[in-house]
Amino acid sequence: MSGLMAGKVALVTGAGGGIGRGIALAMAAAGARVVVNDLGVSMSGEGGDSGPAQRVVEEIRAAGGEAVANTDSVSTWAGANAIVQCALDNFGRIDAVVNNAGNLRDRMFFKMNEEEWRSVIDVHLNGTFFVSRAAANYFKDQESGAYVHMTSTSGLIGNLGQANYSAAKLGIAALSKSIALDMQRFNVRSNCIAPFAWSRMTSSIPAETPEEKARVAKLQKMEAGKIGPVAVYLASPAASEVNGQIFAVRANEIILMSQPRPVRSVHMSEGWTPESVGEVAMPAMRSSFFKLERSPDVISWDPI
C-alpha cells in the first residue's frame, strides 16, 4: 500500500472503537501495518473481550491492509512491553506509537475515592509512559520513530468533576515534551493531540441542564474519524520538523495550543515579605491573572 505510512508499523492503543478505531483505520489506509490494541472492557473497567480489537483488524484486512489484534493492558509494565513485542513478533519492527487508551471515573474532587483516582492515572498517565518506554529502545536503536499521545483540554484548560482525568491529561502533555527533549538526538519525535469527538467516553458526559445538552449536541457533531488524519501525519516521516507540540482537533479544525510561558514578573530589590507580596506583587500582576474557566468556556465556538 502507498501513503505517508507505507512500510511502517503503527501501534494504536484503545483502538477497538471511537477515536482509536478511526486512527487505526487511517494508519492502515496510509500504508501502515497496525497493531490494534484494546482490552474490550467497559468504561468502568469491567469484563474483557477481544472482539472490538479483532473487528477493527477485520475491517483493515477487508480493505487490503495488514493488522493484528492485541488485548494486553497498557496499565502495567509487563502489559505494555507485551503490546510492543506483539508488533515485533508480527511485523518485525515498530515505527509509531499512538497512546489513545483511556477510561473515565468522573467525580467531584471532594467525593473522589482512591480507586477512582488510581484507575484513571494508571490507564492514561502510567499507560502512556509504559507503552512509550517499551518502544523507546527500539526507536533509539533504529534512530527513528514517532509518538502521538492523547491529551485533553480538560487538563490543558480545566473541567468540572475530572480531577483524575485532568491531572493525567496535563501530565501526558508534560511527558510528551520530556520525551521530545530526551529523544530528539535519536530522530524520535513526540507530539500531543487534544481530540474533540463524540465517542464512548464522551457519551458519559451529563446532559441534564440546557447548557449541558447544548454542549453534548456540539460534541455529537464531531466525528471520531476526524482525528485520524492528524495522527497519521504526526506519526509519519512527513512531520519530521514537528516535535513537542500540542494540537487540538475538532471536526475540520486544527488548533495549535499554547504551552506555559512567563506572562509577567515583578521585582523587589530588597526582597519580598508576605505583606509586600500582597500589597505590591499581586496587584501588579492581577490584570494578567487567568480566569477560572472550563474547556467549553475557552473553546466555545461552534465546530467548523
From TrEMBL:
GO MF term set: oxidoreductase activity
Family statement: Belongs to the short-chain dehydrogenases/reductases (SDR) family.
Keyword NADP appears in the UniProt entry: no
Domain of life: Bacteria
Keywords: Oxidoreductase
Listed InterPro entries: KR_dom (IPR057326), NAD(P)-bd_dom_sf (IPR036291), Peroxisomal_Beta-Oxidation (IPR051687), Sc_DH/Rdtase_CS (IPR020904), SDR_fam (IPR002347)
Database matches in PROSITE patterns: ADH_SHORT
Name of the molecule in the record: Short-chain dehydrogenase/reductase SDR
EC number: 1.1.1.-
Location of the Ketoreductase domain: 8-204
Family matches, as Pfam families: adh_short
